């Protein structure tokens, strides 16, 4: 079986979160269309996502091991184990879906903390004196980023406004995940659009992206 890793990044319950509402619609539709998949869910506001530091890491993107690990306190050992487990879970997935709101033209800090945990040397990247290479091109992988926002932003301003989308796309493609799709749930706080219409508009994009990923169509969303 293939694995879909569904990551949510919002402290609100699903019924109050626009990004989670659209995210749920997406994963449900995706699983209906592709029976090869099973899903794991990771709520970054409910799960333990360690904050990396010099105690847990021995060097650049490497958790401590060996004697250094044995010398840690039991609590710090648990944090190292958790980081490695999060990384292994990430590597095992075939398709990733992240649902997050736009906060401060980016995303909630919990998502960056998660990235710091899972981008590990010799697992997700390979660091050499000359360069850094992504290692996730070992199989076909796909990434879908679902972002909700209060406003509506013209495409011409995407690079200046949608920093979260740009960052996630850049990071995933660098890691070796070439197939990237985004679903923007825009205008949630604008009277002329509103939450319900924004969600309804996004559901059309959900159908298009699911079709693209499950039938290998090349479309632009």
From TrEMBL:
FMN binds at residues 17-19, 148-151. Its cofactor is FMN. It catalyses: 2 a quinone + NADH + H(+) = 2 a 1,4-benzosemiquinone + NAD(+); N,N-dimethyl-1,4-phenylenediamine + anthranilate + 2 NAD(+) = 2-(4-dimethylaminophenyl)diazenylbenzoate + 2 NADH + 2 H(+). InterPro entries: Flavodoxin_fold, Flavoprotein-like_sf, FMN-dep_NADH:Q_OxRdtase_AzoR1, NADH:quinone_OxRdtase_FMN_depd. It is an enzyme of class 1 (oxidoreductase). Residues 2-208 form the Flavodoxin-like fold domain. Coiled coil: none annotated. Binds 1 FMN per subunit. It comes from the Bacteria. Keywords: Flavoprotein, FMN, NAD, Oxidoreductase. SUPFAM superfamilies: Flavoproteins. Its EC number is 1.6.5.-, 1.7.1.17. One of its GO terms (molecular function) is oxidoreductase activity, acting on NAD(P)H, quinone or similar compound as acceptor. Homodimer. Belongs to the azoreductase type 1 family. Quinone reductase that provides resistance to thiol-specific stress caused by electrophilic quinones. Also exhibits azoreductase activity. Catalyzes the reductive cleavage of the azo bond in aromatic azo compounds to the corresponding amines. This is FMN dependent NADH:quinone oxidoreductase.
């Amino acid at each position: 079986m293939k694995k879909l890793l569904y990551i949510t990044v919002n402290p609100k319950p699903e019924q109050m979160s626009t990004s989670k509402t659209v995210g749920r619609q997406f994963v449900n539709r995706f699983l209906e269309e592709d029976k090869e998949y099973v899903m794991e869910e990771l709520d970054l506001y409910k799960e333990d996502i360690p904050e990396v530091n010099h105690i847990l890491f021995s060097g650049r993107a490497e958790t401590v091991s060996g004697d250094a690990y044995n010398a840690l306190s039991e609590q710090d050992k648990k944090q190292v184990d958790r980081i490695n487990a999060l990384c292994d879970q990430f590597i095992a997935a075939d398709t990733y879906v992240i649902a997050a709101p736009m906060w401060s033209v980016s995303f909630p800090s919990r998502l960056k903390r998660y990235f710091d945990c899972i981008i590990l040397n010799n697992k997700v990247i390979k660091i050499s004196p000359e360069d850094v290479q992504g290692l996730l091109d070992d199989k076909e992988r796909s990434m879908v980023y679902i972002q909700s926002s209060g406003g509506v932003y013209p495409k011409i301003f995407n690079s200046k406004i949608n920093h979260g989308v740009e960052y996630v796309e850049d990071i995933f493609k660098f890691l070796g995940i070439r197939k990237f799709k985004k679903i923007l749930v825009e205008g949630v706080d604008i009277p002329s659009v509103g939450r319900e219409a924004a969600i309804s508009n996004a559901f059309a994009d959900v159908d298009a992206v699911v079709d693209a990923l499950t039938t290998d169509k090349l479309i632009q969303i």
